[in-house]
Protein: Insulin-induced gene protein
Amino acid sequence: MEKPAPRVEDRTWSCSCTARGRHRIPLGGTATELAAKVGEMLSTSVSSSPLTLVGRRSTNSNLNLSKDVVQRSLVLFTVGTFLALVLNLLQIQRNVTLFPEEVIDTIFSSAWWVPPCCGTAAAVIGLLYPCIDSHLGEPHKFKREWASVMRCIAVFVGINHASAKLDFANNIQLSLTLAALSLGLWWTFDRSRSGLGLGITIAFVATLITQFLVYNGVYQYTSPDFLYIRSWLPCIFFSGGVTVGNIGRQLAMGGSEKPHSD
Structure:
């Protein structure tokens, strides 16, 4: 007795897929069902492909990097603004910096722009230092802890306070003393070639900008001895650049603090 021949629709076609196991598609189904199954398998394969995963990781990495830069910029801007308010107050108390009387009497005095400008400069400098270190391939590893950064800030405030409090026979002696203190700050808390070069560049550029502002009558210094400004001002800019650079470097580490080993 002959066995009946198997029907076509009883036979199945199977394929293996790494993401969803085995799919069994009946050959007797309609063309629409077959196309839907094939499309589902192709979409699963594409979504799990290495190129897609790499693209997603790259996008997430870029987003995290942008978020980190924004957060560091905000912190540096806040620190720069606060330091500008404190240090400018010390200078005004000692009658070093003078603003027009008609402007001082108003709420929106000519001094309102000083803290935001200093905060913006601090954000740029603080982001620039770790970028230069990375570009030169010389990561800064000397005294990388927040305790050292706080001491650097204290020394910087002390140098600025000394510029207003110390009385020397002439401004040349005061300038040489502050220059030695500024170099001592760099040697104690930095000791990097990039830090020294950026500090000198910042001092030069900031001094030129200050000369321009004083020349145009935005504000003035009492008893200027270097063109329109005080001769010790570049020392303050140099030490301020080194201080903000150390803050930016520490923030770039992501808050990881090394054990204190002084």
